[in-house]
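Course exercise 7: structure representation. Students receive a sequence record and must write out the corresponding structure in token form. The form below is the worked example handed out in class, using HTH cro/C1-type domain-containing protein (151 residues). Read each field label carefully; the graders check that inputs and outputs are placed in the correct fields and that the protein name is recorded exactly as given.

STUDENT ID: A-19
EXERCISE PROTEIN: HTH cro/C1-type domain-containing protein
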Amino acid sequence: MSTEFSHRLKKIRVHFDKSQIEFAEFLDIPVPSYRKYESGDREPTLNVIQKVFSKKELKPHCHWLITGEEFTVDAELSSVNAHFKHITGKEEYEQAFINETVKSMQMFGYLDWIEINTDKIDLDACGKLLLKDLEPIIEGHYGSYKKSKTG
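STUDENT ANSWER:
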């Protein structure tokens, strides 16, 4: 991380009008450790970052805390649209969906939200199954979204 992270962490704490002790207790981390994170003397572990992300009150600030960039739905949709703009056919769409599903599942494993046993699980097959299950919902929403934009 960086000193920018520690400054953003402090800004969030101050925004919620909490002392370092109160904020550390809110996050369920030792006060001396929290003080080191905020001062920039120590980088938070993944476990600590997960505790921040798990707090409902802090979720709107998590993207900014990590990147320093404001998160807006419009900006995120624009980014997603630019990323997938090249997709023209159903096969490309399906492969892109499967690839993104695999990346998401790998990230969940990295965050220790799930345990991935590659001897027993085929992530591509999981992506295909999710696509099969979610495609009616996606197409239903996308179809109604397109109608609202054109109509």
